[in-house]
Amino acid sequence: MQKFFLFLLAFTSSFVISARDCLDADLILKNGFIYDGLSDQPFTGTIASKESKIIYVGKNLGEIEIQCSAARVEDLTGKYIYPGFVDAHGHLKGIGYRELTLNLQEISSLKETLEVVKNFIKDKKKDEWIIGRGWIDKIWPEKRFPNRYDLDAISTQHPIALERADGHALVVNSKVLELAGIDSDTPDPQGGFIEKDLKGQPTGLLVDLAMSLASDLFPSLTRENDKEAFLQGIKRNVKLGWTQIHIPGGTFQDISVLEEIKNENNLLQRIYFMVSDGQPADRLLDEGPIIDPDNFLTVRSIKMYADGALGSRGAALLDTYSDYDGKGVFIFLEEQTKPRLDKALKQGIQIGTHAIGDHGNRVVLDWYEEAFNKAKEINNSFKPPRWRIEHSQNITPQDQKRFKDLGVIPSMQPSHAIGDLHFAIDRLGLERINNAYVWRDLINQGLIIAGGTDAPVEIGDPRIEFYAAVARKDTNGFYAEGWNLDQRLTRYEALKMFTIWPAIASFQENVKGTIEVGKLADFSIFNMDLMTIPEDQILVANNILTVVDGEIVYRQ
User: Fold this and answer.
1) Which pLDDT score is estimated for 340?
2) Confidence check: pLDDT of 388 > 50
3) Is it the case that residue 1 has pLDDT exceeding 90?
4) pLDDT of residue 214
5) How far apart are CA 83 and CA 87, in angstroms?
6) Mean pLDDT across the chain
7) Number of structural domains the chain divides into
8) C-alpha span between 260 and 265 (Å, rounded)
9) How many beta carbons lie within 10 A of that of residue 467, not counting itself?
10) Which of 84, 166, 318, 382 could make an S-S bridge to 243, C-beta 3.0–4.6 Å?
């Protein structure tokens, strides 16, 4: 009887201990190789989350502790868990519309591009607009932009407008030029230009703000069109492993649509939203930032444009292009921009300015510095407000140092370097290319880089971005003479570029960016170790599970 009593006591004690240690969680990820973002080394272990937060990170728990929990358990043996990947610069609505419209991306010649348009047009009604996006001339054997005559050969009955992948140039046919009233006498608008041939006739290429001369005529898109585009973009992003995206530019109607999607429980990834310069900016400056306590839809930033893009020769350069008699264009106006900068500092609004050329970056730094100095005169405890420069592509050495001195965050997209290598040296020459896509130089000065994709300008795939950051070669392994492979990043730096550094750039480092107890349960889970596999294998690794807010939002 005594032996039975002692056995019963031991059994009861064991049960009490097990019950006490039972993990009260909603989701348990066990047996995974965990990169927590705090070091470059993984460990095999378990992550548990309750509601939206991480409650446990550590060694693998015993089966009793896991089995007694009511949590959903995922066995990730042989899989690799990373902090949720963040695209710090992606046009979500544009990504969705790329899925829904004529997509001209990744077509390897002008001839093939025109053939795709020709086939697309076959079942369209007369006078119906043909709008496409994504062509890029950088690898075309024709080595030229398309023009009105190329499109006229397809149709003069349909208005045809095809946007370059960078979003900074639009080629149209004669029908569109006629509808827009563009001829040899049409002057260039501020912040853009109408390309003309040697006889002064428009070629059909409209660059930067000149694009609106044609795009203002496009058929109006509805709110429902926009909502479907956002939903398509979100669906694609979580499939690839993105748990958050920073949207560089948009309207309050966009915000309203995203709020509706959130209320319907379909906002599967987090959004950090920058409103566009102009009326949206003025409204945000008047009303102040919108901070979501759930960290799903935060609005506290304004997107401005200093210049155009390098590929379409709109980036503002200090000296003329090596392959073109021009220095690019400035888009923003001093008398409109500087008052907004001053007001943004007072309101706690972040500024993120598109700047690609060395002149564009210098002017942005000049104007930021002037605004900071004014603020310091009023507030002795002034701290750098984490303002950003989006792209930061071509920066002189003295201006690289000013990024650090002013506390300005470079927001850069590695895939631009591997895409642009097919034309950037032609645009800049071998001397200035040394100042382009200088990730290593900026990091060595102690700066962080918020890594993004600029999709739909680029593909928008985290594997391509990670590969580009560590390889600095195109996806076929090619790189050009003078391409400065010494600017490549380590795997750990690339990981931070898409995790903790975007979190800092969006004031969210206390709640995300690393895998730690108390932070949000956002994870990107791959079937291969991105930190150790050969470079070319990064491109074929697969995201097999995306977790946002403790919920599985994608499973392969």
Assistant:
1) 98
2) yes
3) no
4) 96
5) 13
6) 93
7) 1
8) 9
9) 25
10) 84
Residue 254 resides in a domain: no
**Residue owning tokens 């709109």:** 314
106 found inside a domain: yes
Residues facing residue 244 across a β-bridge:
86, 270
Q: Could you write out the DSSP letters of every residue in 44-88?
A: EEEEEEETTEEEEEESPPPHHHHHTS-SEEEE-TT-EEEEPEEES
Q: How confident is the model at residue 62 (pLDDT cuts 50, 70, 90)?
A: confident
Query: Residues near 262 by Cβ (< 8 Å), separated by ≥ 6?
Result: 296, 297
Burial class (CB in 10 A: 0-12, 13-18, 19+), 440: middle
Residue 250 is given by DSSP the state -
Residue 48 is encoded by which pair of tokens? 């548990």
Q: Is residue 470 part of a domain?
A: no
List, for residues 400-454, the tens digit of each pLDDT value: 999 999 999 999 999 999 989 989 999 999 999 999 999 999 999 999 999 999 9
Judged by average pLDDT, the poorest of 126-130, 287-291, 442-446, 527-531 is: 126-130
> Is the residue at 493 inside a domain?
no
The C-alpha atoms of residue 508 and residue 522 are separated, in whole angstroms, by 13
Residues pairing with 57 in the sheet? 47
Residue-level pLDDT at 7 = 37
- Domain with residue 177: its CATH number is 3.10.310.70
Question: What pTM was estimated for this model as a whole?
Answer: 0.89
Cβ atoms of 15 and 62 within 8 Å: the answer is no
> CB neighbours of 201 closer than 8 A, spacing ≥ 6?
183, 184
Mean pLDDT throughout 381-397?
97
DSSP state of 487: G
In the chain the first and final C-alpha atoms are separated, in Å, by: 57
Whole-angstrom distance, CA of residue 171 vs CA of residue 150: 10
d(CA 199, CA 201): 6
Which contacts of 44-52 are long-range, i.e. CB under 8 A and separated by 24 or more positions? Answer: 47/81, 47/515, 47/521, 47/523, 48/23, 49/25, 49/521, 49/547, 49/550, 50/24, 50/25, 50/26, 50/550, 51/26, 51/550, 52/294, 52/520, 52/521, 52/549, 52/550
The Cα angle at residue 50 between residues 45 and 51, in degrees rounded to 5: 140
Indicate the helix (H) or strand (E) that contains 272. strand 270-276
